[in-house]
Design a protein that fits this description.
Radius of gyration: 16 Å
Strand order of the largest sheet: 2-3-1-4-5
CATH architecture: 3-Layer(aba) Sandwich
Shape: globular
CATH class: Alpha Beta
Order of helices and strands: EHEHHHEHEHHHHEH
Strand content: 15-25%
Distance between the termini: 24 Å
Oligomer: single chain
Number of strands: 5
Number of helices: 10
Bound molecules: adenosine-5'-diphosphate
């Protein structure tokens, strides 16, 4: 990775809809969505790294920063090497990283943050219900147990929300995460597109 990667961060509490929005954004030409939760869940469960991930995630805890950032760098490099992500023209949509102030500092040299989209929902009980529903089809053990879900929300408040202080206020867009996916998408695009225009390539141009 030579030049800093043009990046948008999707930020917000567990269950707030980062994954839903990120997946939609990833279908737009020129946008590449990378979710660290998916990256970790893609590891072979029997492998050493896969076991390490499970050890933390089933308790609702964050994977240690060093391991997370090392894996993230390898993963990004893999996307570049296989032409799934072209840093010269594509916008990288990061979902789930950085998740601590230390991670923000560790990845800062690799990314040029054009915008931080902060999805906001203050109704914690609604988020918990959403994740319990998600567990029915997602096969995620960390969504099935309410104690673990609530631990993840606590971890978000103590370890992850300080990440917002790491970035300039002017870079942060607060988006109401309550509403129809299309409605929220409109607000997310309103935040991202003007920030990215002229900074990343046009895949059709
Ligand atoms: P959610 O946003 O619903 O909590 P994710 O799919 O983003 O779920 O993450 C699932 C789990 O993966 C986290 O609880 C954590 O254990 C691990 N994880 C994901 N991203 C990171 C990260 N940046 N740093 C440390 N752990 C992470």
């Amino acid at each position: 990775m030579s030049n800093p990667l043009k990046t948008v961060l999707l930020f917000g509490q567990p269950g707030v809809g980062k994954g839903t929005q990120g997946k939609i954004l990833g279908t737009i030409p020129g946008f590449v969505h990378l979710a660290t939760g998916d990256m970790f869940r893609g590891l072979d469960r029997e492998s050493e790294l896969g076991q390490e991930f499970l050890k933390y995630s089933i308790q609702g805890l964050l994977v240690p920063d060093d391991l997370t950032v090392r894996l993230w760098r390898q993963y990004v490099q893999g996307l570049i090497d296989t032409n799934q992500y072209r840093p010269d023209t594509d916008l990288l949509v990061l979902d789930g990283i950085p998740r601590s102030a230390a991670q923000a500092a560790m990845i800062n040299e690799y990314i040029d943050v054009l915008r931080v989209v902060h999805l906001v929902c203050t109704d914690t009980d609604a988020l918990v219900e959403r994740m319990k529903k998600r567990a029915e089809h997602s096969n995620r053990p960390d969504d099935a147990d309410e104690t673990v879900i609530r631990r993840r929300i606590d971890v978000y408040h103590t370890e992850t929300s300080p990440v917002l202080d790491y970035y300039d206020d002017a870079l942060i867009s607060n988006v109401d995460a309550v509403g129809l996916p299309g409605e929220i998408l409109m607000c997310v695009l309103n935040a991202i597109v003007p920030a990215a225009k002229g900074r990343v390539g046009n895949p059709f141009g």
